[in-house]
Amino acid sequence: MGEPVGMLKVIVVQGKRLVIRDFKSSDPYVIVKLGNQTAKTKVINSCLNPVWNEELSFSLMDPVGVLYLEVFDKDRFKADDKMGHAHLSLQPIVSAARLRQILGVSSGETTLRKVIPDPDNCLVRESSVSCINGEVVQDVWLRLCGVESGEIQLQIKLMDPPAAP
Fold first, then answer.
1. d(C-alpha 94, C-alpha 62), whole Å
2. Which family, according to UniProt (predicted)?
3. What is the pLDDT of residues 68-84, one digit of tens each?
4. Is the pLDDT of residue 119 over 90?
5. What number of other Cβ atoms are within 10 A of residue 14's Cβ?
6. What separation in angstroms does the CA of 97 have from each of 28, 68, 114, 127?
7. Distance in angstroms (rounded) separating the CA atoms of residues 114 and 125
8. The whole model's pTM is what?
């Protein structure tokens, strides 16, 4: 592991048009992975358009990796069913954070960079990385792979690493 880049806060906002894995619905939850770190949202019962609004935190180290997420349907008596997966390169938000430091942007709202859908991410549409009152933030909609339908909305915030003593 290299130098700390900062604290990554991933807010799992909501899901939309998730696939049915039980009789008429699903009981979805999301697992988010960054390197060897893993975090999980709560289960939302009987819902194909769940709203989580849960914040998950990760330590971000250099070299910057890829954020992975998997959606599962919670089952009581058997293994949980897969409801899709997605990934997002964190390089754009890290590059934007470095640009913010170079430019000295700390107040107001400034768009630092735009990220377009490509093979390195599962973006549904273009996403902006902005500096909002000193925080570097990216709002994204990710298309779930390996399933017929489904999208997950995340808000990613990169907090500066603590200053060395």
1. 10
2. Belongs to the plant CAR protein family.
3. 999 999 998 889 999 99
4. no
5. 15
6. 32, 20, 13, 15
7. 11
8. 0.92
- The CA-based angle 63-66-69, given to 5 degrees, is 150
Query: Look-up: residue for tokens 């998950």?
Result: 56
On the question of pLDDT at 1 being above 70, the answer is no
What residue has token string 């430019």?
103
Q: In what order do the strands lie in the sheet with 4-16?
A: 51-61, 4-16, 151-159, 135-143, 127-132, 109-115
Each residue of 16-68: pLDDT tens digit?
999 998 888 999 999 999 999 999 999 999 999 999 999 999 999 888 889 99
The SS3 of residue 94 is: helix
Which is nearest to 156 in space by CA: 71, 99, 97, 82? 97
Q: 91 phi and psi, to 5 degrees?
A: -60, -45
* Residue 147 CB neighbours (<10 A): 15
Q: Which amino acid is at 142?
A: L
Stretch (H or E) spanning 16: strand 4-16
